[in-house]
Write a structure and sequence with these properties.
Layout: H1 2-7, H2 14-21, H3 27-30, E1 31-36, E2 40-45, H4 49-57, H5 62-70, E3 77-81, H6 87-96, E4 101-106, H7 112-121, E5 127-131, E6 133-134, E7 139-146, E8 162-172, H8 174-180, E9 188-191, H9 197-202, H10 205-211, E10 214-218, H11 224-232, E11 236-238, E12 248-253
Parallel strand pairs: 3-4, 3-9, 4-5, 6-8, 9-10
Antiparallel strand pairs: 1-2, 7-8, 10-12, 11-12
Length: about 250
């Protein structure tokens, strides 16, 4: 099935085949090791969107990853908000080295063991994982679970893939996480939370003011103008390089 996804020339129908056949396979037979910059490794599953995308294209967001890593140096610190199974968290942690730090935040607790596993197989001890939804207030939020888990959100689903399941999850502001971590200088924040990005930014006012980190943000059409206006008012400009996906944007403070 992995070869079929990676090499069969007709893309149409691959997702359907995976969704129908993969649930009958043990999890270990759905998994494969994906390679990323810095010789980092992340275990993905071909029955999930991220894994299928990697197999079909031989990479995942290469332009975005390259830009993110260019903002990090040895000893730097980063937030990965919407960490999923850790593609950005792992590659960034390898990049910043043992003197650096990555704080990975993921709202869906079902991804937490896989995120921890990917951290462990790379021998990393500089990643802190937090199972919570980042938002504009500390408390609780309702996570709407998508049939493709990577698209779950505390906002209205952008993909129309609602599974019918909702969960109450812990919600925390980035300012709170940053304060509790000792207020390190943050060089980069990657924010991919399926439409709830503006809420995350509203909960990071002090962090943005004090650290002015570079930002890699998924900007969905319903909130794109509001996100860009919010950042523009705080001295950020859009510096998105060529090769980015249409919904991903890069911002730096000037």
């Amino acid at each position: 099935m992995r070869n079929y996804i990676a090499h069969f020339p007709v893309a149409r129908g691959k997702g359907v085949v995976c969704r129908r056949l993969a649930p009958h396979l043990p999890a270990r037979h759905r998994e494969f090791v994906a390679r990323f910059p810095g010789d980092s490794m992340v275990v993905l599953r071909f029955d999930e969107w991220l894994g299928r995308h990697y197999l079909q294209h031989g990479s995942f967001e290469p332009a975005e990853l390259a830009w993110a890593l260019s903002q990090l140096s040895e000893g730097a610190a980063m937030f990965d908000v919407g960490a999923n199974v850790g593609v950005y968290a792992v590659t960034a942690a390898v990049r910043v080295g043992r003197a650096g730090r990555v704080i990975a935040i993921e709202a869906d607790s079902s991804y937490a063991p896989r995120l921890e596993r990917n951290i462990q197989i790379n021998g990393l001890d500089n990643v802190t994982t937090i199972v919570a939804a980042a938002g504009e207030a500390d408390g609780e939020a309702v996570l709407t679970v998508a049939s493709e888990g990577a698209f779950s959100s505390t906002d209205a689903l952008q993909t129309g893939q609602a599974s019918g399941e909702t969960r109450r999850v812990r919600q925390i502001r980035l300012d709170t996480v940053w304060h509790d971590a000792g207020e390190p200088h943050i060089s980069l924040a990657k924010i991919d939370v399926e439409g709830a990005e503006l809420r995350v930014l509203r909960g990071a006012e002090r962090l943005l003011e004090r650290c002015s980190p570079a930002l890699l943000v998924e900007v969905q059409p319903p909130t794109a103008e509001a996100v860009q206006a919010h950042l523009r008012d705080r001295g950020y400009v859009d510096v998105t390089p060529a090769g980015f996906s249409g919904v991903n944007r890069a911002f730096v403070s000037v």
